[in-house]
Backbone:
């Protein structure tokens, strides 16, 4: 059964807080993973990012440096996760729903959890979740698609950014760095600011999106924005018990993309 779209009467994040985003890589030699802490007060928003290798010591040091600064409301990971953080090993509804023809042709698609790379990424994501829990106080899950007692969710930056684009075909893309092209375009066009100000209105940023040039740092920041959507209870969720991929608020998703997503609407949360 197709499932998506959870709505809430709450449209802004708490007055102050922080969230975590983790770009999951599994290279033991390259710093292909990154962690971002996005924080805000009543007047400003800022972030810190650090990259790390897929090694226990490297990962723990990065998590302690960035995520160990204090409690966070939600943590989002760019890797497949399912309820109970079990191994997946199969093609999921979340992946299928984001691979329908007109989505795939316009903004690409997630990989399959049934593939070898998908299984490796799932294992790495589970390790990152466990590692973050060891060093960071993560808030309790309050969203209906919870996969754990703590608020950990799955992000997919390419789709998250892609559905914000009104005309994705007009964005010059050099595969495989599709998400970098989307990030740059939304940074320049104001799309990232619109998202942030929708979730955290009346605040200024301490940094500039355009100054973020590294692929993995960008991915970690988008994961943190994904977590912020859940903290604000304003997002679209695609999937089922095998895992939910979190997308931006439905009011910001481009009409062409919104029309392609499942249309099951639930009652507002309280």
Residues:
């Amino acid at each position: 059964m197709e499932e998506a779209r959870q709505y809430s009467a709450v449209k802004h994040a708490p007055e102050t807080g922080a969230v975590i985003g983790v770009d999951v890589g599994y290279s033991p030699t390259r710093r292909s993973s990154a962690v971002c802490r996005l924080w805000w007060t009543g007047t400003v928003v800022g972030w810190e990012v650090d990259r790390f290798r897929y090694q226990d010591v490297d990962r723990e040091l990065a998590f302690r440096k960035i995520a160990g600064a204090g409690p966070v409301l939600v943590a989002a990971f760019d890797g497949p996760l399912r309820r109970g953080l079990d191994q997946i090993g199969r093609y999921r509804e979340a992946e299928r729903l984001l691979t329908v023809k007109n989505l795939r042709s316009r903004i690409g698609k997630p990989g399959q959890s049934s593939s070898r790379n998908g299984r490796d990424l799932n294992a790495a994501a589970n390790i990152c979740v466990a590692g973050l829990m060891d060093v960071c106080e993560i808030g309790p899950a309050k969203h209906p698609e919870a996969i754990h007692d703590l608020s950990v969710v799955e992000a997919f930056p390419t789709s998250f950014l892609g559905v914000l684009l009104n005309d994705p075909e007009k964005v010059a893309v050099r595969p495989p760095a599709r998400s970098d092209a989307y990030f740059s375009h939304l940074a320049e066009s104001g799309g990232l600011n619109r998202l942030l100000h929708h979730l955290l209105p009346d605040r200024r940023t301490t940094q500039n999106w355009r100054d973020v040039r590294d692929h993995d740092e960008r991915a970690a920041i988008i994961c943190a924005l994904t977590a912020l959507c859940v903290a604000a209870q304003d997002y679209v969720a695609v999937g089922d018990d095998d895992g939910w991929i979190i997308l931006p608020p439905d009011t910001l998703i481009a009409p062409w993309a919104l029309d392609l997503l499942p249309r099951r609407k639930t009652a507002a949360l309280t």
Remarks:
- Residues 5-10, 264-270 have pLDDT under 50 and may be disordered.
- Residues 28 and 54 are 5 Å apart (CA to CA).
